[in-house]
Design brief:
This protein has three domains: 87 residues, Rossmann fold, CATH 3.40.50.20; 60 residues, ATP-grasp fold, A domain (Dna Ligase, domain 1, 2-Layer Sandwich), CATH 3.30.1490; 189 residues, D-amino Acid Aminotransferase, Chain A, domain 1, CATH 3.30.470. Helices cover 30% and strands 27% of the residues. It contains twelve helices and 19 strands. The strands form four sheets. Strands 9, 10, 11, 12, 13, 14, 15, 17 and 19 form a nine-stranded antiparallel β-sheet that branches. A four-stranded parallel β-sheet has the order 3-2-1-4, with helices on both faces. A four-stranded antiparallel β-sheet has the order 5-8-6-7, with helices on both faces. The radius of gyration is 20 Å and the shape is globular. The N and C termini lie far apart (50 Å).
Length: 382
């Protein structure tokens, strides 16, 4: 590739915070972004060359992306793989990761089946299409168990914990559609690996510990606070998963670590992921730069961690939807080793991801304590 201006253009379906950070990462490489999003002046629009306003699965919108871009990718699983395939065929613009990968990952049951067939360790699961089938499946899996919508769930949405037979009817009604039920994994900690597939090369970022409450990611710390053997096993599982994925790009791979050190797959995202945001300050190459390198066929960058790094998400702490005005920013910016990332969303509501802070230091527990303390200085309340 020769650098020129205007540069290579990547069309991105989705213009939220992931698209915004892709745009920030692409600029130094001479890669320009064209994003599509249904929200006018979406967060990524301020760092992209242009925005096409349209639904994530709208064929006319995606066709315009394909016509104007050199490569197509997506930062949200609501993109339509059939539309992406049709646009690629009609415009000749390559799509990465491949639409068939998106199609497989969009359905959690299909995802589990495909990976289980490939020998990836996954929790025990069953497909259920009615409350009666759920009750029957739980006779085998036992209580508690996790009921999941097969499509569309994220940040805990579409997941319902079934603790006893009395919960079966209401749990299935809450999902409102095709579902699968998984054994409840009694894990020691949750881990994540950002995997990378380039043009004939693969790599992984360092294993990260992810800390959730109410099924929403609150903090990450890398290296994960577990033993080296377990981290290596997590990396091995992630590498095996990459062999199943079709298409270039980065993949957010979420894992469970059991008390005995066994690693099980939780879920996969075929895109940059919240568990990898720490790489912006913490690694030689960020997950966002890596994704753009991979999609455009450039050599992958080094994934080495600079130093232990922790991240804390800035979540909405208000009861009602309102204009987003964050207080406490000055105190954060006065704090050495802390970096602030603002996603540019116009409105805030309870638990909405609005930004994050990271800190790089010499010891995982200390940087994690710091980002937690600093994050608590921030509020959207008046």
């Amino acid at each position: 590739m020769k650098l020129r201006s205007p540069g290579v253009t990547v069309g991105v379906v989705g213009g939220g915070q992931l698209g915004r950070m892709l745009g920030e990462a692409g600029s130094p490489l001479g890669i320009e972004l064209l994003v599509s999003d249904p929200t006018p002046e979406c967060p990524a629009s301020l760092v992209a060359r242009d925005q096409v306003v349209g639904a994530f699965d709208d064929e006319e919108t995606i066709y315009e992306l394909g016509e104007r871009a050199d490569y197509l990718t997506f930062e949200i699983e609501l993109a339509d793989p059939d539309v992406l395939e049709a646009v690629e065929e009609e415009t000749g613009t390559p799509v990465h990761p491949r639409p068939e990968t998106l199609r497989m990952i969009q359905d959690k049951l299909v995802q589990k089946e495909r990976l289980s067939e490939a020998g990836i360790p996954v929790p025990a699961y069953e497909a259920v299409d009615s409350a009666a089938e759920l009750r029957e499946a739980l006779d085998d899996l036992g209580y508690p168990a996790m009921l999941k919508a097969r499509e569309g769930g994220y940040d805990g949405r579409g997941n319902v914990l079934v603790e006893s037979p009395e919960d079966v009817e209401t749990a299935f009604e809450a999902i409102q559609g095709p579902a699968m039920v998984e054994e409840f994994v009694d894990y020691d900690r949750e881990l994540a690996v950002i995997g990378c597939k380039g043009d004939g090369e693969t790599d992984t970022f360092p294993v990260t510990e992810t800390i959730h409450r109410e099924e929403i990611l609150r903090e990450t710390v890398s290296p994960a606070r577990t033993d080296g053997q377990t981290r290596e096993r997590a990396r091995e599982v992630a590498t095996e998963i990459l062999d199943v994925m079709a298409g270039r790009g980065v993949y957010g791979i979420e894992l469970f670590e059991r008390a005995d050190g066994e690693i099980l797959l939780n879920e996969i995202a075929p895109r940059p992921h919240n568990s990898g945001h720490w790489t912006i300050e913490g690694c030689h190459t960020s997950q966002f730069e890596q994704h753009l390198r991979a999609v455009t066929g450039l050599p992958l960058g080094a994934t080495d961690r600079r130093e232990p790094t922790a991240l804390a998400n800035i979540l909405g702490d208000v009861d009602t939807r309102q204009d987003a005005e964050l207080s406490g920013v000055e105190d954060v910016l006065r704090t050495d080793t802390v970096s602030l990332h603002w996603y540019g969303k116009r409105e805030v509501y309870n638990l909405r991801k609005m930004g994050h802070i990271t800190s790089v230091g010499s010891e995982p527990d200390s940087v994690l304590s710091l980002v937690r303390e600093v994050r608590d200085w921030l509020t959207f309340r008046e």
